[in-house]
């Protein structure tokens, strides 16, 4: 599906100029709502548009007292209809839309924010809504404080930036997560659900492993207790985005795995112990033959649609096998031709492409090619990189993509490639299919090794600034 335009510009408008939002599509508006002890800021952004359809993101910031649940309402001015929405539950009656929180994002502290996104249809024109209301508080252009008490107190201060997790940051940047996987920590500040599931060998029972607190680190003690005296395998890596894009045992494809029925092996749950913020956690240790996949996803980019992704790997655990990937792949576990994948690859395989030095490199698996840049084989701008904890990024949009990376323990990101699609036929436009894989190639090639700690995939092409903020969050998390 071809995008006609991509809108990322945000305009902050008061009630006096809110009418400007009705002058054309692609404009974003910010509205400030007020009531006693309440106030909010809502940014509406059309992220892409095509004939008869469009995608939009909404970021909601709470400027008043903390809230534990929310309801966002608005009216479409030109008959637009929502067809799919994430990070919330919606109803629509005519032009009127009501979105309520899901379990993991109901609480918004003072100064905090949450994001949601949707796809919709339009006919004739696609103007932005002129106003929003949060929990019944209409956008009026001011914030009302509570009545003063006998003992004056200062207004609540916004929480520090570290209270936001990677997917909160992506949502604020207009490119929300459509998949969020981690066995080490929550990737939303409000997430308080299961991160992954383990199965023990002694009796084949399973146990979900959650977090110590909302937005926190994995509760490794639950796993240690459950798996004491036996071995455990990671059976499910849950999706924190609310889209149920969980990863499970990869099925056979162009290549069979070593497990019964041609499936790939599951990872040993205790093979990659680390600490995050001083708390014990476990990564996903991928030995050759191990792989995870989801071929029936929700909201992941297809065709030439824009997307971004990052992952944290062990930069010292790799090989030259094909292919230690995380990202977008074919939905039938077969090689469906050039451009049917867009995934992060990490390793020192030189069969298809390579960078400077002896590797390992962060490259993009675009199917039938591991690309380190625009050239099919060698690209000098892509360096050998092997930090113990490594941030790896690949992102793509029509005839444009980038590779970035850095040390997940310190410092900033570097850009190794930023330009047009590879100069090889079949990659422009892309033909992404929208499955998600981990540890294997698109056709279930399963000869690679590596270790995965966390990763996400987004709707839309993230800005460098957004990714830089995510990198700062990763560094602050304290991987050791």
Radius of gyration: 23 Å
- The assigned structural class equals mainly beta
As a percent range, the share of strand residues is: 25-35%
- Rounded to the nearest angstrom, the distance between the terminal CA atoms is 43 Å
Low-confidence stretches at least 5 residues in length (pLDDT < 50)? 1-36, 145-162
User: What is the number of helices?
Assistant: 3
The biggest beta sheet reads: 7 strands, antiparallel
What is the assembly state of the chains in this entry? single chain
Mean pLDDT: 87
Shape by Cα distribution: globular
Helix content: under 10%
Q: How many E-type strands?
A: 31
What key phrases describe this protein's structure?
seven-stranded antiparallel beta sheet, 480 residues, globular, mainly beta, 31 strands, 3 helices
Give a structural overview.
There is one protein chain. With 480 residues, the chain is mainly beta. It contains three helices and 31 strands. The protein has helices spanning 166-172, 220-226, 464-477, and strands at 11-12, 29-35, 38-50, 53-62, 71-75, 81-86, 89-93, 96-100, 113-121, 132-134, 137-138, 177-182, 196-200, 206-209, 232-237, 248-249, 267-268, 273-276, 279-282, 284-286, 292-294, 307-313, 325-329, 342-347, 361-365, 370-371, 390-397, 400-407, 414-419, 435-438, 450-459. The strands form six sheets. Strands 12, 20, 22, 27, 28, 29 and 31 form a seven-stranded antiparallel sheet that branches. The protein has a seven-stranded antiparallel sheet with strand order 16-21-30-23-24-25-26, with no helix packed on it. A hairpin with a 2-residue loop joins strand 27 (390-397) and strand 28. It starts with 10 loop residues before the first strand and ends with a helix. Residues 1-36 and 145-162 have low confidence and may be disordered.
């Amino acid at each position: 599906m071809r995008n006609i335009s991509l809108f990322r510009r945000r305009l902050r408008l008061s009630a006096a100029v809110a009418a400007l939002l009705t002058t054309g599509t692609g404009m974003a508006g910010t509205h400030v709502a007020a009531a006693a002890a309440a106030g909010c800021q809502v940014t509406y952004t059309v992220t892409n548009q095509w004939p008869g359809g469009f995608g939009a993101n909404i970021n909601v910031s709470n400027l008043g007292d903390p809230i534990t649940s929310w309801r966002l309402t608005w009216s479409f001015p030109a008959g637009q209809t929502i067809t799919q929405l994430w990070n919330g539950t919606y109803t629509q009656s005519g032009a009127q839309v009501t979105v309520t929180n899901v379990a993991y994002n109901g609480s918004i502290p003072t100064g905090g924010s949450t994001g949601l996104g949707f796809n919709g249809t339009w006919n004739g024109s696609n103007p932005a809504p002129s106003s929003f209301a949060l929990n019944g508080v209409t956008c009026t252009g001011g914030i009302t404080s509570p009545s003063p008490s006998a003992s004056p107190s200062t207004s609540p201060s916004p929480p520090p930036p570290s209270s936001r997790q990677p997917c909160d940051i992506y949502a604020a940047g207009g490119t929300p997560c459509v998949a969020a996987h981690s066995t080490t920590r929550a990737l939303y500040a409000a997430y308080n659900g299961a991160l992954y599931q383990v199965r023990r060998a002694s009796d084949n029972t399973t146990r979900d492993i959650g977090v110590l607190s909302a937005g926190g680190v994995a509760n490794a003690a639950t796993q240690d207790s459950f798996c004491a005296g036996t071995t455990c395998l990671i059976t499910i890596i849950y999706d924190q985005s609310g889209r149920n894009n969980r990863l499970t045992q990869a099925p056979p494809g162009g290549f069979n795995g070593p497990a019964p029925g041609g499936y790939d092996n599951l990872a040993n749950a205790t093979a990659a112990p680390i600490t995050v913020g001083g708390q014990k956690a476990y990564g996903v240790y991928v030995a050759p033959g191990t792989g995870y996949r989801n071929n029936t996803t929700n909201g992941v980019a297809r065709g030439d649609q824009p997307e971004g992704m990052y992952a944290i790997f062990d930069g010292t655990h790799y090989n030259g096998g094909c292919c230690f990937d995380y990202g977008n792949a074919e939905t039938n576990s077969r090689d469906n031709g050039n451009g049917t994948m867009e995934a992060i690859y990490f390793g020192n395989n030189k069969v298809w492409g390579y960078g400077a030095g002896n590797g390992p490199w962060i490259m993009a698996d675009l199917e039938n090619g591991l690309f380190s840049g625009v050239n099919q084989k060698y690209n000098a701008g892509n360096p050998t990189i092997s930090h113990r904890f490594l941030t790896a990024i690949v992102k793509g949009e029509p005839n444009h993509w980038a590779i970035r990376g850095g040390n997940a323990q310190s410092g900033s990101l570097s850009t190794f490639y930023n330009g047009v699609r590879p100069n090889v036929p079949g990659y422009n436009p892309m033909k992404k299919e929208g499955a998600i894989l981990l540890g294997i190639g698109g056709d279930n090639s399963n000869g690679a090794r590596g270790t995965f700690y966390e990763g996400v995939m987004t709707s839309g092409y993230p800005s460098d600034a957004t990714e830089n903020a995510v990198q700062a969050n990763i560094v602050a998390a304290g991987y050791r």
